[in-house]
Amino acid sequence: MMIAAVLLFMLQMKVPDAASFVGQPKGAPVVGAELDRRTHEVGSLVRCPVCQGMSVADSPSEMAVNMKGQVRELLARGYTEEQILEYFELSYGQFVLLRPKFEGVTAAIWLLPIVALIAGVAITFVMLKRLGRKPVAEPKSKPVSEPASDPYLARVRELAGGKS
Amino acid sequence: MNRTVLTIGVIITAIIVGLLFLGLGKNPNEIRSPLIGRPAPSFALREAGTGRTVDVAQFRGKPVVINFWATWCGPCWEEHPVLVAGARRHPEVQFVGVVFQDTEDKILGFLEQRGVSYPTVVDDRGKTAIAYGVAGVPETFFLDANGAIVAKYSGPLNAADLEQELRKGVR
After folding, report:
1. Residue A156: its H or E element
2. N or C end of chain A: which has fewer CB within 10 A?
């Protein structure tokens, strides 16, 4: 009687299901030692949201243990790695993925420094080329012309033995 | 040459300053959840104390406030009276508390001490919290009358924040 009451109660309870997020399983159910191995593999790709940069496979926190348990359950039901990661991403956002997808802001963060570097090299190259082509500027001040009859200069030339 | 360099410098500085202002203007408690705008994950969980099943779907047709909390969470002690008063002030809104990583006796002791005005259910293995993307407690989700999530608030709500969040889309 007691067992029946507990079973009835369990049937009445309902927790959110992955199927409402990512549909039906697309793979084959995983069992035994393979299930342990795959749980650790997939769990190591999911960030523990209450830890500092740890995966749910490595963290001992209760939240991580619960999330790892969910990974295990979904693998056992035949959900693929992609479906499981998508399930967590739909709840937590890309933050939960320890290997973020190469798209949107993530792609911009990776690409912008490369674009900036290429632009910097191009600008430097153009500027250097422009500097190289520039004609040598004429000196602004002309040398002071020697006066035609400078007695001091004439005396210097005479002493030096030259013609004036 | 100098004018070009100056213009580029001004543009880059303006972009950086603009991004900083955008970031500074945001409320750090208002976390953008990927669930916002989507139907709230459905759940039916055991109510602490009574043992009856509370199905969130039964509240469809009225706005719902779902608050994730735990007795070991300090800010939850501070927030709870705000929610109890909010639920009394807004009978048109259904409040539901979801407790995870906790024990029933501690939950009942907490409720006895801090007051009750809405059902509190127990999320035994944290599956509901995970489906809602809960990273820490307290976190509060605001659902419209159609059961779609319209806002998420991370951290303890005060009365003003609660009213503001309710105004956003729940009422």
Report:
1. helix A151-160
2. N
CA distance B76 to B140: 11
**Inter-chain Cβ pairs, chain A and chain B, closer than 8 A:** 74
Q: Contact, B98 vs B128, CB < 8 A?
A: yes
Q: CA-to-CA distance for B41 and B131, rounded, in angstroms?
A: 7
Locate the chain B residue with the closest alpha carbon to A49.
Answer: B135
Nearest to A45 by CA among A126, A93, A99, A94: A99
Q: Measured between alpha carbons, how far is B63 from B148 in angstroms, rounded to an integer?
A: 9
Nearest C-alpha neighbor of B133 from the set A157, A63, A104, A137 = A63
Q: Which residue has the tokens 């807004």?
A: B90
pLDDT in tens, B16-42: 898 888 777 766 555 578 999 999 999
Task: Compute the nearest-CA separation of A141 from chain B (Å).
Answer: 25
Q: What is the ipTM of this complex?
A: 0.82
Q: Where are the beta strands (DSSP E) in chain B?
A: 44-47, 53-55, 64-69, 94-100, 120-123, 139-143, 149-154
> Cα angle at B6 between A138 and B23, to 5 degrees?
165
Q: How far apart are CA B63 and CA B55, in angstroms?
A: 14
CB atoms within 10 A of CB A7: 10
Give me B147's structure tokens: 């059961």
Cβ(B119)–Cβ(B97) below 8 Å: yes
Q: Each residue of B111-167: pLDDT tens digit? A: 999 999 999 999 988 999 999 999 989 999 999 999 999 999 999 999 999 999 998
B23 interaction partners in chain A (CB closer than 8 Å): none
Interface membership of B164 toward A (CB under 8 Å): no
